[in-house]
Amino acid sequence: MSSVEKIKSNRYIQNIESWRWMTSLVLKGAAQTLATVGGGSKASRPSHVPENLAVDFNFTAIDCSETDIHAGWRKLFDKPDIFWTPQNGGHWVVTRAEYISTVMKTPDVFSSDEIILPKGAKPIRLLPLEAKPSEHGPYRAIIAKRVTPKAVTEMRDGVRALTIEMIESFRAKGECEFVEDFAKRLPIAVFLQLVDLPHDDREKLLEWTEVAVRSKSSLQLMMAFLHVINYLEYWIRERRAKPGDDLISDIVNAKIDGKPLSHDEIQGMLTTVLFGGLDTVAAILGFMAKFLAENPEHRQQLIANPKLIPKAIDEILRLHGIVNLSRSVAQDTELGGVFLKKGDMIQVPNSMFGVDDRATDEPLKVDFTRPNIAASHAAFGLGIHRCVGSTLARMELTMFLEEWLTRIPDFAIAPGKKATTVAGQVNGIVQLPLRWPVS
Ligand code: HEM
């Protein structure tokens, strides 16, 4: 096949208009990033930031991130409760549950219109995440009706079957690379089910989203982002012409106050669901498998009493917060005695919330019978933007624990190998070699 024929046969790159739109987005993003971080240099300390609150902290290069990213985050408890760092455009970091809760529950003062660091680095407005409180409800409702408890229950059997199929594909080998073979694959298959897209697209999406979330090369990142958006573009057009019973059709054909959503709004919503539902679930699956591989007594407890699984999910989420997003300060204000100026960025790491000893007794003790576990963490966020997909995420994690522990009850990190975790606005785990006995 000639290269022209190859291009023609690839339905995802035929739409020149989409490419133009996307390229302008990416160029805008690149220009904003350069303007904000000055090509990686540190920001100067603004005059309203006292010297004793300035700490050089870079969330992309946390200590311990190679093997235990959460231990790295916990070191921040030695710093002031609220401090400022010159890294990533310059921003505040809140380390204590009390203040994280205030920031996340006061959206008029701590605005979600910028949640990614560095400020302005992203070419697209993520919806409903970055919607103002007054406009947020209708965007959220469009997604919410696809992931209600009833809708999630209806997906359960399909997700269970997928989980079993994946586990059985490597069980007899006695080993797997958990992240590659399972953690990344389950959420993408569930996403494809939610949006009713072809299963065969799984590998392609996996490759693009992985690069878009983790790559340190801006060119690779830009290309991956373009691929994902272009892929979604194709399906937006398809579902506009032929609506089906799926989330893309809902978003594309939704109206707010009688008006259809704009192109940017549609892309912003689909991108949020795609990235919000893939990397997060993949990360917690990885942290969960790592914890159970390293803690046989907790594993045995779940095998002996599977009724503990829902509580175990919350207890593991409490210890392994995933998302470390930010807010922008919408008006001059004060938090914990610290003056914050309008326009400042403030990071609220969920990684810190559940392990703060001022809020949780013996926070490093793992106890699946701890009272009120679900209320003692903020892994799904707090306030109006609290994760709309949490019921779906919990169901995926339940399917994993139920089916994995039945089929592979005895497993450990492969001897001589190690898990590798990574720091970021979403904590991740990139390698988890597991091994188990086979008869
Ligand atoms: C264990 C997995 C997950 C974790 C840890 C997680 C975490 C979060 C957090 C912390 C937020 C709030 C962010 C903020 O306040 O700025 C959020 C919001 C959101 N999540 Fe999740 N999430 C997970 C799974 C999912 C899934 C499976 C979906 C797919 C539907 C999803 C879709 C969303 C959406 C659309 C929002 C925005 C809600 C709004 O702005 O009203 N998430 N998630």
UniProtKB/TrEMBL annotation:
SUPFAM superfamilies: Cytochrome P450. It comes from the Bacteria. InterPro entries: Cyt_P450, Cyt_P450_B, Cyt_P450_CS, Cyt_P450_sf. It holds the Pfam family p450. Keywords: Heme, Iron, Metal-binding, Monooxygenase, Oxidoreductase. Signal peptide: none annotated. The keyword Oxidoreductase applies. Gene3D superfamilies: Cytochrome P450. The keyword Amino-acid biosynthesis does not apply. Belongs to the cytochrome P450 family. PANTHER family: P450, PUTATIVE (EUROFUNG)-RELATED. This is Cytochrome P450. It comes from Zhongshania guokunii. The lineage of its organism: Bacteria, Pseudomonadati, Pseudomonadota, Gammaproteobacteria, Cellvibrionales.
